[in-house]
Amino acid sequence: MSVTSIKIKELVDKREQARLGGGQKRIDAQHNKGKLTARERIEYLLDDDSFEEYDMFVTHRSHSFGLEKQKYYSDGVVTGRGTIDGRVVFVFSQDFTVFGGSLSETFANKVCKILDQAMKVGAPVIGLNDSGGARIQEGVRSLAGYAEIFQRNIMASGVIPQISAIFGPCAGGAVYSPALTDFIAMTENTSYMFVTGPKVVQTVTGEVISTENLGGANIHASKSGVSHFLSSTEEEGLLLIRKLMSYLPQNNLEDPPVIECSDAIDRLENSLNEIIPENPNKPYDIIDVISATTDYGEFLEVQRNYAKNIVIGFARYNGRPVGVVANQPKYLAGVLDIDASRKAARFVRFCDAFNIPLVTFVDVPGFLPGSKQEYGGIIIHGAKLLYAYGEATVPKVTITLRKSYGGAHDVMSCKQLRGDLNYAWPTAEIAVMGAKGAIEVLEGKALASIESPQEKAEFIEKKENEYSEKFANPYLAAKYGFIDDIIEPRNSRFRIIRALESLATKKEVNPPKKHSNIPL
């Protein structure tokens, strides 16, 4: 063999060794847990044969606690670039078979290189997390590595989309990199996130709690709101990320990808003319309204199990991606509370950062009353959603379906928050409050003077009808120009599409400033 042939064989052998990570035994252990390896995840996520790996031959530089005798190529994280549907993305995938995926100085340098490259070329970053945390043997260098990654997450925020998938443990300081990204996906039974684990919690507080109940996927999907997507398997989670990417631009200077659409823009949905119940207190499912208007009825819901009284997600209208925000009458009557306000506000700001138009469906009776909400800071948290809509410069199309009462009316992308086109169905009730509450305030003295229950009931019914006729309808708001048009429900799809097309060239700039001071 020639010298060159020998060197090429050496290269091939080293590549094969690197692809084995921590060895076949540890790969088998990973599979026995129902988990994929770092490279298998990348292969499943990206287009076939599109992945190009960086820094395959990097090893750690530590000489403490005998680590110099244990060296593996790639050092616990696989990094590189590839494509999803032909569009470039950068990826890092933590390898649990190498030192439990723990982060070393060189591990951090590899991730930082990927983030820097992504910023240079304006491409999304996807992080696949499966790590035991900091590599204790490297001490403060490991902590410095985390901080280097955090700083890059912060600089990349609002510039390129950042998506995290948690496919194993993610604990301690390691949780803050995913927390700084735009979306987090988790899998049931195999992934968890927490700042301090169950043992520390028991030692410090005395509370006995399992890993799953402290930071499992279902907990973060339904209680904390940390996770945006929940999947039963890693494969499902990776497909969800591919689907999510189809709605997003490469960076903040590009528009989201528009695709060809064969769903008729003037399709009439007669079901929408009957979907609002005659009883104003009877619920319906807002998902039915959204699906009836979007292309092919498709809707990618985000944070489905958290703050169910508001619905957020991505859809397309005539091939054009949009962010959808909608009150959900089916849950807590669609009322706004702390969790719903936070959930929607962050989503609105993401869409605004990446030039994704907003379509808002309104059916909101107000803010949730009670001391729990007041003590929890509903004033500040409600202001976040108000701020997010008011700050947004992307096209904003709003349709009021039924209730739009009080301060919640203002918060849900009203005309005065620079709503571009605000429509209402004939069933809309736009007022300071509902008829029942209004009559109790306006006619309190008269009601107190009526002794007969029957006469009181008749008086209330008469006054409520008068109030509804005068105030609880869309025509008064339309009279003042706060509603641009009152539309037939079945025409909603056509009106939304035409509105979005008319706003496609919208240019609006906020006053120059270092940064805003959103009420956090």
Automatic annotation (TrEMBL):
- According to its UniProt entry, this protein's organism is Neptunitalea chrysea
Please name the Gene3D superfamilies in this protein's record. Answer: 2-enoyl-CoA Hydratase, Chain A, domain 1 (3.90.226.10)
Query: Domain of life of the organism in this record?
Result: Bacteria
**What name goes with this protein?**
Propionyl-CoA carboxylase beta chain
Where's the CoA carboxyltransferase N-terminal domain?
4-260
Q: For this chain's UniProt record, which GO biological process terms are given?
A: carbon fixation
- GO MF terms on file? acetyl-CoA carboxylase activity; propionyl-CoA carboxylase activity
What family is this protein classified in?
Belongs to the AccD/PCCB family.
